[in-house]
# Entry
Amino acid sequence: MVSVVAETAALAAPDRGLPIPPYDDAKAYVARVARRSGSSFLLPMLLLPKPKREAMLALYAFCRETDDVADEVPDQAEALALLDAWREEIAALYRGEPRHPVTIALAVPVERYGLAQTHFLGILEGFDMDRRGAMVRPTMAQLERYCYCVAGCVGLLSVAIFGYRSSRIPVFAEHLGHAFQLTNILRDVREDAELGRIYLPIESLTREGVAMLPPGELLRSAGAQRICAELGKIARERFRKAAEALPEDERGNMRAALLMRGIYEAYLDRIEAQGFRPDLPRVRFGPLRKLALVLRAFLASR
# Structure
């Protein structure tokens, strides 16, 4: 399905700022963005109280709309101008002057939950790295930074919405976000490579002697398979560290995050069972499988 970003990008000339899509109600707009995505994110959020659920839908819509700039706008100058316009819109949000339905929907959550502006800007930094090509055979340091930006910052905003008392929760959020993002990278190696995007770290590619292979050959190489297995180990370690950082008395507050973990660890289990082969299609679960995973994780989180 064509995204709102792709539909309205033609309006996004640098001198016009951020295009504002047609909408009647900001909350309804962000809910539609989330529903269109079909993301695993939606099921765990249904268990949240309404104000927190609405806040998470607005956060998700922000991530979806800005990620689409990195992925779907074909013209480089236009995409970078849109990312700059989103930065300006975040500044406007924190001045109390949001114009876009996503930032309008975020206004109450920002105030109610004390959401940090730096985390929204961090998300945009990650998508900027993507768009400028920094994530094509990145260094390990770049990969770490990217995971922090596009997933760790989302995690930090999410736990602020969930609410917590322990100072260990931000550490939990960063580790869990990192594990989620590495799992996503492993799920998408084939699709990304077909688009000319290689998220595997250059140090590992060089060590395996596959750094200069074209994407098709790289996907079929034993070296790429070994690198994916290494990233899988890092993701497992991040899941473990997240579990260590979560105090027992915060499990109820973090239930939505734990339900997401149930889905993502199952993705990683499937990828591992397939031998971390990067040439295989993306691992997907149907709605019933996702529901079963969420229910299992829910029972385990009680």
